[in-house]
UniProtKB/TrEMBL annotation, chains A, B, C:
Domain Rieske: 35-137
Superkingdom as given in the UniProt entry: Bacteria
Organism, scientific name: Caballeronia concitans
Region (Disordered): 1-23
Protein name (record): Rieske (2Fe-2S) domain-containing protein
CDD domains referenced in this protein's UniProt entry, alphabetically: Rieske_RO_Alpha_N
GO molecular function: 2 iron, 2 sulfur cluster binding; metal ion binding; oxidoreductase activity
InterPro entries, sorted: Cholesterol_7-desaturase, Rieske_2Fe-2S, Rieske_2Fe-2S_sf, VanA_C_cat
Keywords: 2Fe-2S, Iron, Iron-sulfur, Metal-binding, Oxidoreductase
Amino acid sequence: MHAALPQGEQETGAVDTSASQPRDLRRIDIHPDHWYPLAWSREVKRGHAHGVRFAGDPIVLVRTDSGKVFALEDRCAHRQVPLSAGVVDGESIRCCYHGWTYDCTGRCTDIPYLGRERLPNGVRAYPCREEAGLVFVFTGDPLRADTARFPSLDSATDAAYKTRRFGQEVKCHYTFMHENLMDMNHQFLHRRQMGSMRARSLGRRRGEDWIEVDYTFAREAGKQPIGEALVFGQKRGAKPDETQKDVMTVRTEYPYQTLRIRTKDEAMVMDLWIAYVPLDAEQRTNRTFGLLSIRRPKIPILLDAAWPLLVWFTERIFKEDRWIVEREQEAHDRQGADHNHEVFPVINELRALLMEHGVPHRAAGAHDVDARRVHRIVPVQEVPAS
Amino acid sequence: MHAALPQGEQETGAVDTSASQPRDLRRIDIHPDHWYPLAWSREVKRGHAHGVRFAGDPIVLVRTDSGKVFALEDRCAHRQVPLSAGVVDGESIRCCYHGWTYDCTGRCTDIPYLGRERLPNGVRAYPCREEAGLVFVFTGDPLRADTARFPSLDSATDAAYKTRRFGQEVKCHYTFMHENLMDMNHQFLHRRQMGSMRARSLGRRRGEDWIEVDYTFAREAGKQPIGEALVFGQKRGAKPDETQKDVMTVRTEYPYQTLRIRTKDEAMVMDLWIAYVPLDAEQRTNRTFGLLSIRRPKIPILLDAAWPLLVWFTERIFKEDRWIVEREQEAHDRQGADHNHEVFPVINELRALLMEHGVPHRAAGAHDVDARRVHRIVPVQEVPAS
Amino acid sequence: MHAALPQGEQETGAVDTSASQPRDLRRIDIHPDHWYPLAWSREVKRGHAHGVRFAGDPIVLVRTDSGKVFALEDRCAHRQVPLSAGVVDGESIRCCYHGWTYDCTGRCTDIPYLGRERLPNGVRAYPCREEAGLVFVFTGDPLRADTARFPSLDSATDAAYKTRRFGQEVKCHYTFMHENLMDMNHQFLHRRQMGSMRARSLGRRRGEDWIEVDYTFAREAGKQPIGEALVFGQKRGAKPDETQKDVMTVRTEYPYQTLRIRTKDEAMVMDLWIAYVPLDAEQRTNRTFGLLSIRRPKIPILLDAAWPLLVWFTERIFKEDRWIVEREQEAHDRQGADHNHEVFPVINELRALLMEHGVPHRAAGAHDVDARRVHRIVPVQEVPAS
C-alpha cells in the first residue's frame, strides 16, 4: 500500500512535526454548550426513566405517560440517589426512596410526609429535544440552548436514504475519534477488510468552527470487497484510476463529524453523521452515536437484501477503529502526555480546531457543585416520542 | 402512599433544611473504643484461625484446641504475612511461613531456628468475648475494655424468642445504615414487599449517646402481605387505624442500633439488634451483624413453620435497603462531599449524634504504625465456644 | 519441625533485629544495566512481533522473516500505538495503523504517504541476544551492553542435564523472590509437600555483587516424598543425618539467583538458574524465568519417565512460594512501608546487597520521557532463533 500527499502538503507536513504543543489535547474537555445525543429514542420507554451520563454528570431522561421526554440531573435533592431508579407518575418522576416528586422543570412538587406548602429546592433541568430517533440534551448554559445550532440530520429522515443507527462505548478521549476518521491514510489498518487502497488528499478547507478534507481512493491490488462496494458504490471493471472520480469529504463541524461520498455527477451516495459523547468526568470514555445513510438504488430492494452484509462490514471496520483508538488512549495514559508526532497537515489543523473550541479540563466534581447551587428553571422543549 | 409528620415537626423540618454542616459525616470514622462483633461464632472453628478486618486493620480470631477464642493482629512480626493462614498448635498459633509461634497475649514464644532464649517482640492482642453466637472484639484502647458497656443481647438468648442471625457486606459508610433504619418514611422503597404504608412519627427522645423515635403505621391500600404479618403481627379484619396500636421504636445507642415492636399491651413482639462494622480503612464498606428475635406465639410450631417465609421476606427488605444505601455512597463518592438535604428532624439529630461520638477520619496507615510500635499485653477474656 | 542456626549466627541474628533501615527495600528498583530475559524464544515466532514489558516500559521483540530477533520500544513514533500489533515486512516492522516502518536500529525507514526523503526520528532500540531458549534484552544504557556480564547458563545447554523451563507472573516486588529462595528456614511452608525437614545453615560467603549460603537438610519425621527424591536425590534407607552429606548452595549474583545441590563427591545433581523481571513501573509484579536442570542418571530414561512427577512437584512448591510472597507484598502495600523484622543474618546481608545494587524508585513516567527524547542507534546483536 502506498498513498501520497499532494506535493505542497508533504513539505508543510515535514515542517510541522517539530511544532511545540503547549497544551495537551487530551486534557481539553468537549464544550458543553452544544446539543449532544445522550440516548436512542427507543431506549427511553414510555412511563420509564433512563439514566445516562455526560462527562461524569448523571442525567435522567424521563418519558412521561403522555410520551414527552424531559431531562433532569439524575439525583434526588434529598439523599442524592438516582432519580432514574424512580417511578414515573403521570408527567412527574418520583424518587424511589422517600417518594419526593419532581416535574419536568426539576421543581420538587411533593414530599409525602412533609406537606406541599413548604418544599425545598429541586434539581437542575436540561433542555431536551428528540430528532431522528435520538434524544438530544443541551448540556451547557441553558440560556444558550435556543441560539445554539442544532445539527442537520436530513439524510436520516429522507426516504431517499436507508439509515443505520450504530455506535458503542469506546474507551478513549473524543478527540482520538475525530482524528481517526479524518486521517484516511490509515487504510492500512483496514487492510483485511478493504484490501490495499491508496488515499489521495485533494485539499482542505477551514471555517471558524469547521474543517473539511476531500479524498479520492484508488485500489492498488486485489479485488474490491463486496462490503465496501455497498458503502462506496460498486465499480465493475473499473480502470485503476476510475474510483478516483468519487470524492469522499470528511468534515468536523464542532462538535459533530460527517463523512460524505459523492459520485462524479455530485450525487451524495453516502452520508455518515456521528457524534462522540464523553461519559466520564475524565472524558476517557465516549459513547458514539452514528447515523449511516445510504442512498437507495433504483431497485430499492437490492439495498435491503444487502443490508446484513453492510452491517457486518461496517461493524468490522468500526471494531478495528475502536481497537486502535483505545491503544492510543492507553499510550497516552502511560506516557502521561500527548507525544503524538503528526506529519499530516489536515490533522494538525483539526487538532488546533478541537483545542480552540473545547474547554480546559475541569477539576473533578466542579460541575456537580455548580449544578447543585443553582436551580435554573429552563424552558423544556417537549417532543412526542417517535 | 402518604405519610405525615406531627405538625410541629413539619415546621422544624422545613427550617432545618438550610442548616450548614461544617463537617462531612461520611468522613467520621466509627469510634474504636467499643465492643464490635467481628465474626459469627460458627465461622471460627475449633483448631482453626479466621482472618477478619476492622476499619482496615487485619485481625485474626483463633479458636484453640481447647475451644477458647483469642484475637491478635493478623500479621506475623517477622515478615508481616497473615497469621490467619497459620496453624493452630494447642493454645498457640504458628505462622505458616517460618513457623514463628504466638500465644493468646500476642507474645512470640518460639522461632524454630533461633532458640527460645532470645525472642523478638510479638504482635498486638485484642480483648475478645463471645456472646449470643457472636465473637466480639474490643478494637480500641484495651485499657478501656473492662469499663466499656457491652451490648445487651437478651432477646437472642431468651427462649421466649426465636432468633434469626443475618447480615452481609454493604458497600457504604456505616452512617448510611443508621439513617436508613431510623427514617421510617422510606416505606416507599419497600412498596413491592409492604404495599402502601403510612408511617407516623410519635416523637423522639435523646440521651447522651442515644436517640430513639416511636412510629405507628397504617395501611393505605391493599392487603397486608403475609411476610409482614409474621414480623409485625397479623391483623385479621383490622380497621384502618387499628394497626396504629402497635408502636415501633428505633433506637441508636452508639454504636449499635435496635428496632423493637410492642403491642398495645406493651408486649415486645419483635426485637432487632444490629451492628455495622467498617471493614476497610476508608470505612466505605461495612459488615452487618443482625439478631432478629421474634416472640414465639402460644403454639410455637406456627412460627417454625412460617420461618422460611420470614427469612425470605426479611432478605427481600434487606436487599432493597442495601441497594439504596450503596447508591447513596456512590453519590457521595461522585460528589466528593455530603450534599444530603435532610428535612426530618429525627435524622438531623441522629446525624449530630453520630458526628459527636465518632472520630475524624484518620490518615491511611496511621493505625498500623501505632499498632506496630506498641505491644500491649492485655488481659484476654476467654469464653468457651458455643 | 525444628531447624537451627549455627551458634554464632544466632547471636548475631538476635542483635540484628533492632537494626534501623533508612530506606525501604521495596522502593528500590532493579538496576536496568543488565541483560534480562524478557521472553522464551518459542514465544517470538518467525515473521511476528511480540510485546513485553520491563519495569513499565513496553518493548517489542521482532523475529524477522530470516529468523533474527531485535528489540525496540513498543510504540510507533507517530501516534504511540504498539508496534507489537504491526506487521513484519522482511527485516522490518510496519505499524498497523498508518504503515510507518522501522528497521532493527529503530530508524523510521518509510511513511507510505510522505515519501522517503524526509523522515522523522524513530524509536529506541535495545541490545538483544538469544541464549538457552531465552530472549535477553539489555534494558539500560546501551553503551554498557558489551561490557556487562552475560549470565552463565551452562547446565541448560549441557546434554548431561535435562532442563525444565518454567515461570509465571508473581504479584510482588522482585526482592521478595530473592529472600524467599535464600531463606531455607521456610521449609515449614512446604510441610505438605516435603514433610518435616530441618535446614542447617553451614555459613555464608559474600563478594562485591554476590552472596551465597550453604545448607544441609535432615528429615525430622515421615518418609521422603517421591517428588522431592527426584529433585534432591533419593535416599533409600538413609540414616537420620545422612542427607546432610548433600549441600545446597543458594546464591544471588546480582540480579540473578541460583540454587545448586552437590553430593558429597562434589557432583552437581541439580542446578536452578532463575531471574525475576519487573513488569510494571512500580515493580510490584515480576515475571519469573527459571531453568531447572537435573543431572541425568546412568539410565537416562528413568528421569524422562519421572519427569511429569517432577513437574507436578516443582509446580506445587512454586505455587506455595508464589502465594506467600504475594501475601508479603499485600502486607507491604497495606502498611505503606517495610516492617520486616529479620533475624537471619544471611537475609539481612542479602537485603543490603539488593539495596546497594538497585536504584531508587524512579518517578512514574520518567523513563518514557528519556526514551522519547534520545534516539540512540545501538549495535544490535542478532542471533538466529533456535
